[in-house]
Amino acid sequence: MAIKVFADGANLEGMLDMHDNGNVQGFTTNPSLMKAGGVTDYRAFAKMVLEHITDVSVSFEVFADDEAGMEAEAREIATWADNVYVKIPALNTKGESTAALVKRLSADGIKVNVTTIFTPKQVDEFVDAVSAETPSILSIFAGRIADTGVDPLPLMAESVKKAAVKPAAEVLWASTREVLNIFQAESVGCQIITVPNALLAKRKNFGKDLLEYSLDTVKGFARDIQALGFHILPEE
Question: Which domain of life is it from (predicted)?
Fold first, then answer.
């Protein structure tokens, strides 16, 4: 497939395994993943990752909630390696847009990954904010949009068209929920999709014959029935 698959993660061993096996073309992290992965030293963890992963992009997110703090952290993170993208949330906890900050960073040649984009208005302001020359990623949370009962495909397709005016910008389908999303993301022109490890494991089913899949499923149920040892009818 033409679309690049990125993995979300904060487990060094798992990241290196996926990288060495060529399963993904980039990595993203976030504070929640850091917490779940038991990371206690953000800088040390990042430096360890970047010592081993040098040929694909890795996104590290700022922690600050104010613009000045975000900017200081972003400029520091950007110095860690050439393949680093700095993740900047589209807004802070007060609901204030970070577009002005993103514009400054991108204009200064810092590669940004704008995260938590949900609305057409946010797409417009961040397409405008990123530089035409500096590589950037616009991460649109298609899966969470779908969780609200809204079809994300029209927004994703329109976002790809809007972002085309900035040749160095790529649209990323975030919060992937199922394998089908990979095909949907590629069909509307997204350049990148983040895929959880559990879904990456399902790529072996791509193109599988459905009747064969039906039989495999029945056999799986049969093995579980046997393991349970349950009976519906009384034993004679």
Answer: Bacteria
Residues marked active site are found at 87
CB 127 within 8 A of CB 166: yes
For 34, what's the count of Cα atoms within 13 Å in the CB-facing half-sphere?
18
- Please state the domain extents for the chain: 4-204
User: CATH homologous superfamily of domain 4-204?
Assistant: Aldolase class I (3.20.20.70)
Task: Please provide the DSSP assignment of 44-77 as one string.
Answer: HHHHHHHHH--SSEEEEE---SSHHHHHHHHHHH
For residue range 154-170, what is the model confidence (pLDDT) as tens digits?
A: 999 999 999 999 999 99
Q: Rounded to 5, what percent of the chain is helix, strand, coil?
A: 45, 15, 35
**pTM reported for the whole predicted model:** 0.90
